[in-house]
Design goal:
The complex is a heterodimer of chains A (about 525) and B (about 140). In chain A, about 40% of the residues lie in helices and about 20% in strands. Chain A is α/β, with parallel strands linked by helices and about 525 residues long. Chain B has a 5-stranded parallel beta sheet, with helices on both faces. Classes of the chains: A alpha/beta (about 525), B alpha/beta (about 140).
């Protein structure tokens, strides 16, 4: 039985053919994505490339994921930056979205305009614990309705505001571009909304239709995270709304299975590799496979791990770990973070967001790193010229052994370093009457034993451990709780997304292949 | 009737955990919804919690003597964050040494606290005060 997986990226359509019986990857191929015309063209081209490698074959199942046409572009709204706004960002990121921006408190006119410019596919609207603040989420709901863009809204905030929110969004959906909100105010008997309405100029504001779903609060109680319901809604909306808008429905029909965002597939593979497969799961799905009796050693996961996906536009970090404090005199502070956490950095990428990355890292640091990587002096001018060439021509590839390769590696290391800094927990030292204590905000990843590299810049590098060393703890930046002694491994064939997809049907096989194909460096 | 929401916690670098737990328990038993932030709570954390939960009162505990420094500016920050007229209470060993409580009380009231409690105050006293304050609101 052969499963064919397709990852429709913005630039490339990548295929992986897997033999389920023998737990082997038969081949991988790629071709340019053709989303503007017909996505099937690119798919067929990639399929022909595959057949050129491994000969003609027929597949039993086709499963797809996609990050094409900008991926699943989202913005998240919450109340307090470190609380519901952060919870909203975590939920959106863990659903595989590219979270372009997170907003807190009542959004300003400028922020409203910014959302218009971002033109997101989905908006996650949160704010307030259940029974807590509802003014802000109601105000933001109205402001979202005033934005003349066709995005869907997932509402996952204070349940006590759901009546008002339902009214606001159904009002906006019932009549396109309603002028005035007088009739809306009449429909609302709530005092909070009344006072808020006053602040709007009643005749000039317009409402635009929004598709919406109301689900459970991402933070129902103070500091209690509940991101699963929001995450499921995002996934369902991606399947029902976004797939068509992104020109993927033809492929969806061909496959017969639901298309999911690529980062979600990667996330699932990370979870699978970390947690392993339990006996009950294996029994359900691995009927045709070779492994009939449950082999605990074979089906065990690798435990805590971090995966780094370094791409052209974003750098994604996945951490699979509880992240509990590793020191006895350490206290956890702030919002507890989930075992499976993903962050996506839209300003850190090797090509499309290179300018922002260079600005963040600082050109001097890149020059220093590049010089130490190459062993000979590299000048600022050389670095600047390469960056300029990359910005003008995103398809450019550095040649092996060149100065540019060292510069490229230095930039990649910076991206990994900054992205993991932002992902990891922050440790602050506090002096108390009972001695020195440490306050940990986020996940303590210092004992995570494994960092896995995914993505072109890492897979193509001669020495990916140089780049991945950016994920390691650095005593000069000691506040970031990153792995102290990690092993580095690499996903050379870029099979993570594929195995995440196969894992949905046959986790035992996907796990076996991951453990086989992810290689130490 | 909706339960009143009270944010509690021990401010600053103070790690006295026991009294805070007893107080939170007593407040829960008295029918309040308690959002207990535990020990080593910063001013910002009280405010963030009060914002999200739409709290009715913030109850600051301090046992290690630095309470005065830790509490200074909390009311201003509450005002700034839009927590208008929120009830602010402080109690414990809030200053160093044996000082005249009258003076201590005045200094805390000047900082904008609604009420301040001397060492040894029983939870019942605070609960009674809170009920009175809520009845007036």
């Amino acid at each position: 039985m052969i499963y064919l997986t397709a990852d429709i990226g913005s630039t490339y359509t990548k295929l992986v053919a897997t033999d389920i019986e023998s737990c082997k990857v038969l081949g991988a191929s790629c071709a340019f994505t053709t989303i503007e015309t017909d996505v099937r063209e690119g798919f067929n081209n990639a399929l022909r490339n595959m057949e050129a490698q491994i000969g003609e074959f027929s597949y039993d199942k086709l499963i797809c994921c996609s990050s094409a046409a900008g991926g699943l572009k989202m913005v998240a709204l919450g109340l307090v930056p470190e609380l519901t706004a952060k919870a909203a960002r975590l939920a959106a990121a863990s659903a595989g979205a590219k979270v372009v921006k997170t907003y807190s408190f009542e959004i300003s006119k400028a922020e409203q305009e910014e959302i218009y410019e971002i033109n997101p596919d989905l908006v996650l609207l949160c704010g307030g614990t259940d029974g807590g603040n509802k003014d802000v989420i109601i105000a933001n709901a109205k402001r979202l309705c005033q934005i003349d863009r066709d995005f869907s809204v997932v509402v996952a905030g204070n349940k006590s505001a759901s009546h008002e929110l339902q009214k606001i969004f159904s009002y906006s959906s019932n009549s396109k571009a309603n002028s005035g909100i007088d009739s809306l105010s009449e429909g609302l008997d709530n005092s909070a909304s009344e006072s808020l309405d006053d602040s709007f100029s009643r005749d000039t504001e317009k409402y635009f239709a929004k598709h919406f779903v109301i689900t459970q609060n991402v933070m129902p109680e103070f500091n209690k995270l509940n991101i699963e319901p929001a995450r499921n809604c995002i996934e369902e909306l991606f399947i029902s709304k976004i797939v068509e808008a992104k020109g993927l429905s033809a492929l969806q029909k061909m496959s017969g299975h639901e298309i999911i965002p690529t980062p979600l597939a990667v996330m699932r593979a990370c979870e699978l590799l970390s947690r392993g497969v339990s006996e009950s799961e294996q029994g359900k799905v691995c009927l045709q496979g070779k492994v009939h009796t449950f082999d605990a050693a074979l089906m065990a996961g690798w435990g805590d791990l971090i995966a780094v996906d370094l791409g052209g536009a974003t750098t994604d970090i996945y951490s699979m770990a509880d992240g509990n404090p590793t020191l006895s005199n350490m206290l956890s502070k702030g919002l507890p973070e989930p075992y499976a956490k993903r962050t996506v950095e839209g300003d850190l990428g090797m090509r499309y967001s290179l300018a922002a990355l260079v600005e963040e890292a600082g050109i001097d640091r890149i020059v220093r790193e590049a010089t130490s990587f190459s062993g000979s002096e590299i000048t600022k001018e050389q670095v600047e010229s390469w960056i300029e060439r990359c910005c003008h021509n995103p398809d450019i590839v550095s040649s092996k052994g060149s100065i540019e390769e060292s510069i490229e590696e230095a930039i990649a290391k910076m991206a990994v370093e900054i992205a993991t800094d932002r992902h990891a927990g922050i440790i602050e030292s506090v002096f108390t009457p009972v001695g020195q204590m440490f306050a940990l905000t986020g996940k303590d990843l210092s004992e995570v034993p494994l960092v896995i590299g995914i993505g072109g810049a890492l897979a193509n590098s001669e020495e990916p451990s140089k780049i991945l060393s950016g994920a390691k703890y650095n005593s000069a930046r000691y506040i970031y709780s990153k792995p102290k002694e990690p092993k580095f491994m690499i996903d050379g064939k870029y099979i993570f997304a594929s195995m995440g997809l196969i894992g949905g049907f046959n986790p035992a096989v996907a796990l076996a292949i991951l453990k086989e194909e992810i290689k130490k460096v | 009737m909706k339960k009143r929401v009270i944010v509690t916690g021990v401010i600053g670098a103070d790690v006295h955990a026991v009294g805070n737990k007893i107080l939170a328990y007593a407040l829960e038993e008295a029918g309040f919804h308690v959002v207990n932030l535990g020990v080593m709570v910063s001013q910002e954390e009280y405010i963030e919690a009060a914002l999200e939960t739409n709290a009715d009162a913030i109850l600051v505990s301090s046992l290690y003597g630095h309470g005065e420094i830790d509490c200074n500016g909390l009311r201003d920050k509450c005002d700034e964050a839009g927590l208008k007229d929120i009830i602010l209470l402080a109690g414990g060993n809030i200053v160093v040494g044996k000082q005249d409580f009258k003076e201590v009380e005045k200094r805390f009231m000047d900082m904008g606290f609604t009420k301040v409690y001397p060492p040894g105050t029983q939870p019942e006293t605070t609960i009674e005060d809170l009920n009175l304050m809520f009845a007036k609101k």
